[in-house]
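Dear colleague,

Thank you for sharing your sequence with our group. We've completed the structure prediction you requested, and as agreed, I am returning the results in plain text so they can be pasted directly into your records. Please verify that the sequence below matches your submission; if there's any discrepancy, let me know and we will rerun it promptly.
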Amino acid sequence: MTARLQNTTVIRGGQAILNGATLDCAPGQLTAFCGPNGAGKTTALSVLTGALIPDRGEAMLGGHPMRDLSPLVLARQRAVVSQVSRLGFPFQVHEVVAMGRAPHHGTSGQKHDHGIVRCAIQAMDLLPLAERNYLTLSGGERQRTNIARALAQIWDSPPSGATRWLFLDEPTAALDLKYQISLMRKLQVFAKEGWGIVAVLHDLQLVKDYADHVVLFKGGGIVGSGSASDMLADASIHATFDLDAPYSLA
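Please find the predicted C-alpha cells below.
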C-alpha cells in the first residue's frame, strides 16, 4: 500500500510552500525527492510522515488517512530521520538506538529488543562506537546513530501485512563518501525486501545510481515524477534547478 499525498497544500505566512501536491510512493521502491532549496521537498515529507497537517488535501499511508492512524500504530509502521538531531543528553550510542524500540514496549521481549538494537547498530557499522557518548560523536557518526534508531523502530514486520516505511530528510548530508554509498546500498536492500523508502536527497549522482523513483519539486509544486533516467535527463535538471549552463550526470 502506498504513501500518498492528495492535492495537498501547506500555507505559511500567507504563501503556499506546498501547493496542490499529489503523489504516490510505492513500497518496494527507493523514492527520492529532489529539487532546489525551498521547493517543498521537506514539507511534503513532513506531511507524508504525519508530522505536519496540511491546510488542504490529505496524506494517506497504507490506504488509511493519516488522521485516522493513532500515534502508536503510526510509530510501529513508519520511522523518520530528520535533518537535525535535537538530542542533547549524554546517552551512549546503544541507548540512543534502543529508543527506537519504545513503540514496542509491552509487545516484545527484552531479549528480542536487544537483538534488534544490535542488528541496527551493525547495519550502520556502529559496533565500535556502541559505548560512546552520543554528544562526542562527529556529525556523520551521529547521523548513522539516528538512522540506526529509526531502523530499530521498524525492524519488526508490522501487523496485518502492513508496509514498513522509512522517511529520511537529507540522510547523506553529514556522511563521507564511504558511508554515503554504504547507506544508499542498504536502503536499496530494504526496498527490495518490501520496505517503502522515501528520502530527500541533493546529490543527484547518488539519486541516479540508487533511486527507483524520483519526484522533482520546484516552487512548492511537483514538476515531474518517474524513473531516475527520465527525471534526471539533462533538460529536466536544467529546468528544475534554473541552471544557467548545461549540466550532465555521469
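Summary note from our side: Residues 36 and 241 are 6 Å apart (CA to CA).

Kind regards,
the structure core
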